[in-house]
Amino acid sequence: MEKRQIWWLLVIVFCIGIFIATESPAFTGKHTEQILREKIEPPADLPIGEDTISKQGNSDHDSVRILNVILRKSTHFITFGFLAIFVLQALKPTRFYYVYAWLFSSVYGAIDEWHQSFIDERTAQVQDAIIDSAGAFIFLLVFYLGKTFFKNKKMERSSRHLEPR
């Protein structure tokens, strides 16, 4: 199997994985927050100031909710960042392959959000599609800068070997 075919296979498997995660009730915000709540219990002797207690009187409620949001949004960012890199590898060396990789990932992120609007206990959020797109962009940018940096370092090393002593 050719390298590009392997990368496209990885893209397809990854997209199917995203679709399955979207369909699964195990990946809803409510469910992940419940898991975090079960796993993270503050020590009983932890002094809690009155200013840290939420309106419900539960001091860890807000912190678990915030942690859940951070983890979920980070997952969006990272997942679509990796998707963009996989698409990039599948497309190269076509012209504008960085742009196409970003577009593919961004459009798939928007379609995934739209798909969520049809699933119970899920909501489609424009901010998630923006986070997906930003993740794809940042991953591609870091990949490009890393590739350029190491390419320049390699050229620098090889030019040192060619210089007369």
Layout of strands and helices, then pairs:
Blueprint (H helix, E strand, L loop, with lengths): L2 H21 L5 H11 L19 H33 L5 H20 L9 H37 L3
Helix pairs in contact: 1-3, 1-4, 2-3, 3-4, 3-5, 4-5
Key features?
mainly alpha
Overview of this structure, please?
It is a single chain. This protein is mostly helical and 165 residues long. It has one domain. It is 74% helix and 0% strand. It has 5 helices and no strands. It has helices at residues 3-23, 29-39, 59-91, 97-116, 126-162. Helix 4 (97-116) packs antiparallel against helix 5 (126-162). Residues 51-57 have low confidence and may be disordered.
Q: Detail the poorly predicted runs.
A: 51-57
Tally of strands: 0
Beta-strand content bin: under 5%
Percent range for helical residues?
Answer: over 70%
Whole-number count of domains = 1
Tell the overall outline.
Answer: globular
Alpha-beta content class: mainly alpha
